[in-house]
Amino acid sequence: MASESEQLSSSTVEKKNSRVSWSLVNFYLDLLLLMNFVVLMLVAAILQFVFPVGLDAEGWELWGGDVVDWQNVQFTTLSVLTLGITIHVMLHWTWICGVINRQIFRRSVLKPDGTDTLVGVGLIAVIVHVIAIGMLIARWSIERPN
Fold it and tell me: Could you tell me the pTM of the whole model?
């Protein structure tokens, strides 16, 4: 039978092994963001430089996909990249707020009272509204062909 100190020592090792390494989480997230960015740049370059412009691209295919398929891949890749960047910023939000408070505003960081979280949620709401307003303006401004 194991002694009490051996049991404590093994349970401590189990707890350490079951912890999430935030450094590894950040590393893998950054790696996924990099790979996603490379795919996005490849797809954008293909759409810009390989397919003919506009209606001339109708009927052309590359690797089984036409220009609309490639545009859909580009939008999906951009959406995944946006989600990944949002998660990345959320994981670093405390650090970002600390840098802004200490380095930019030259003030000491106040006790964590949730203000930083509210600012982050507000910032996301502002960004979503700016995008929505831009889309509405574009929708109202688009001109149909004759």
Answer: 0.67
